[in-house]
Design brief:
single chain, 220 residues, alpha+beta, Elongation Factor Tu (Ef-tu), domain 3, six-stranded antiparallel β-barrel, six-stranded antiparallel barrel
Length: 220
């Protein structure tokens, strides 16, 4: 499990297609030294497994294989050499949960509409605006949690299929957000608690003889 508190950023060294999949190699000093073969690491919010570690290389690096599902559902296949990526190692049991529960299982890809500075109070904050896939909007609520590129963030506002999020200076500078541009795609993981709540509600309704369709048909 991850918390969406990005530890550091790394840079893509290479993306190499293989038979039905691909291998991603990332320069990650400060992370590689703590990795063992088979360990999990979140790369821009995608949980990957370290299959090769080169701690003595310059820069230190690790590689992970991407399955076809990962390639289809995330932005990782669109990264080129030098692309900045967010990195986080799993949270140890008993560690305070600083962000929210992030599985590293990306639900879909959103589009960055704008990342605008907002000056005030002696610092520059930012407003991140995103368009999400319609199928994910049912899990998004104002003041709720969402992971964008693996970053635990709070939804400040919603309008249709667009959301906006306040970004503090530390998050802007310590993650890959400052390297993104309007029009780029970003990995989105909605709050897993919302999905479990929906599942439980549907199961309860079905047990009572109701379905989402019957409720809607009767004006609920």
């Amino acid at each position: 499990m991850f918390t969406g508190l990005v530890e550091t950023t790394g840079a893509v060294i290479s993306y190499t297609p293989t038979a039905g999949a691909a291998r991603l190699t990332i320069a990650a000093p400060g992370i590689v030294e703590r990795l063992k073969l088979g360990d999990s690491v979140a790369v821009c919010g995608v949980c990957l497994t370290a299959v090769a570690i080169e701690a003595e290389a310059r820069p230190a690096r690790f590689s992970a294989d991407l399955a076809a599902e990962t390639i289809a559902r995330t932005t990782l296949s669109r990264l080129g050499p030098g692309s900045l990526v967010n990195l986080e190692l799993p949270t140890s049991a008993g560690t305070p949960l600083g962000g929210h529960v992030v599985q590293g299982h990306v639900d879909g890809v959103g589009r960055l509409l704008a990342l605008d500075p907002v000056a005030g109070g002696g610092q520059t904050d930012w407003v991140l605006r995103l368009r999400l896939p319609a199928a994910l909007m049912r899990y998004v609520v104002q003041k709720g949690s969402i992971a964008v590129e693996g970053i635990s963030l709070t939804v400040a506002g919603i309008e249709g299929e667009e959301i906006w999020i306040a970004i503090v200076p530390h998050t802007y500078s310590a993650t890959n957000l400052h390297a993104l541009e309007p029009g780029m795609s970003v990995n989105i993981e909605v709050d897993v608690m919302a999905k479990y709540a929906e599942r439980r509600a549907e199961a309860g309704a079905a047990a009572c003889g109701f379905t989402v369709e019957t409720l809607l048909a009767n004006g609920y």
